[in-house]
Amino acid sequence: MTILDGKLVASVTRQNIKKEVEEIKAMGLEKPVGLAVILVGEDPASQVYVRNKMKGCEEVGIKSFMCGLPADSTFEQVADTIKSLNENPEVSGIILQLPLPKHLDENPLLDLIDPAKDVDGCHYVQKGRLWTGRESLIACTPFGIMRILEHYGIELEGKNAVVVGRSNLVGKPLAQLLLDKNATVTICHSRTKNLGEITRRADIVCVAIGKAKFLKADMVKDGAVVVDVGMDRDENGKLCGDVDFAEVAPKCSFITPVPGGVGPMTVTMLLQNTVRAYKQQNNL
User: Fold this and answer.
1) Strand partners, 34
2) Catalytic residue among 114, 117, 118, 120
3) Is this structure's pTM higher than 0.70?
4) Is 281 assigned a catalytic role?
5) Is there a catalytic annotation at residue 120?
6) Is 47 in the active site?
7) What is the number of alpha carbons within 13 Å of residue 252 lying toward its C-beta?
């Protein structure tokens, strides 16, 4: 059994991103590579995520813009911030930190982001490009998962892959990315019947449902590759994933841990997308 080390892959990927940014700066272009993060309110978890994004920008040489708004901000106030960043030539990428306060509807706000600056892959234009086989800015977590699998040389073509979870941020785009690599893909969800029978046939199981230690050993076959996207707390308050690691790991050929698996890749691929967006905007 091999641990899929997301920290290692993130470190290698960030070194390459830093090199890309340095090459761009050496061209002497007027506009920097810049990432703007909009945070509405003071949700503690969101604040941690935003700090990690700012720190990541500093690490690779990307200029960062932190746009903090009060929790009681109106739709119009958030929309005006997005429009201002759309027009700012120093901003290559924009991310609206989720979740938003309950009185704000995220989808129409996400749709206001210039698709060319949508480095979180949330805009329907970028999703449409992904699902029609065109070059796109891909949702960061699925993008990171694919980078981990690539780094470890895990063959996907012809494999039976099961994605448990159908969210717009992870499950759906991940299924499409696996399909693009010629895997045979099944998407399972809360209404799926006989889930264990389906996952037991899979060569690759990716779980993203937000239920602590949901995937058990009797739900995977020997030699499976298991990717755990969960970030949960167990009965003792300890951080864990959607996979019961202690049970499942002995049966796997490869498995991601929590923490230290998929998590470190999400911010890293946000940085990668920001550089991608900059290059596309400047025809580089």
Assistant:
1) 63
2) 120
3) yes
4) no
5) yes
6) no
7) 28
φ/ψ (deg, to 5) at 161: -110, 135
Amino acid identity, position 97: Q
Burial of 70 (0-12, 13-18, 19+ CB in 10 A): exposed
Q: Specify whether the CB–CB gap between 254 and 220 falls below 8 A.
A: no
pLDDT tens over the chain, length 284 residues: 999 999 999 999 999 999 999 999 999 998 999 999 999 999 888 999 999 999 999 999 999 999 999 999 999 999 999 999 999 999 999 999 999 999 999 999 999 999 999 999 999 999 999 999 999 999 999 999 999 999 999 999 999 999 999 999 999 999 999 999 999 999 999 999 999 999 999 999 999 999 999 999 999 999 999 999 999 998 888 999 999 999 999 999 999 999 999 999 999 999 999 999 999 999 99
In single-letter form, the type of residue at position 259 comes to P
Please give the Cα distance from 88 to 138 (Å, whole number). Answer: 22
